[in-house]
Amino acid sequence: MANEQNLKPFTSDQNREEAAKNGKKGGIASGIAKRKKNASRAYLKEILAMRPVISTAMAKRIMEIGGDPDDGSYTMEKLTMVAMIQKAQKGDVGAVKYYHEMLGEDPKMVLEKEKLKAQKAAIAAIRGSDGFMDAMMGTAREVFDDGGDTPDTIEDSE
User: What is the dihedral of CA 147, 151, 155, 158, to 10 degrees?
Assistant: First the structure.
């Protein structure tokens, strides 16, 4: 990760070739880091899709929330969600936030959606469903097109 000790800015004591060489090194390192991150993400997806042997303790947890541990549908991802729900039931605020985010009920996102909805409603109201603004714009256009008063001619006549 970049920090003040390992950054080498382009300066007058560094020629263009050296700067290009350092930039190339940074680009290569960035590519390696991205490939590692993508590989880790793919590996995590594989793990979460696995169907593990369910322990007695986990079977008990599944039954406590009304599930059937023997139905064969429990993946690592589902078991993780079961654990998160139980943590949330015990008062773990982080677990509550996690599953609200997973459900798309993150308070910040809900607020943003409501804000967007209000903005769209305001725009629709300004445009007006009765056509008043369109009529006014059309009338103004007709006046200006007919050679009527424009802001310039109004000032001159005063």
Answer: 60
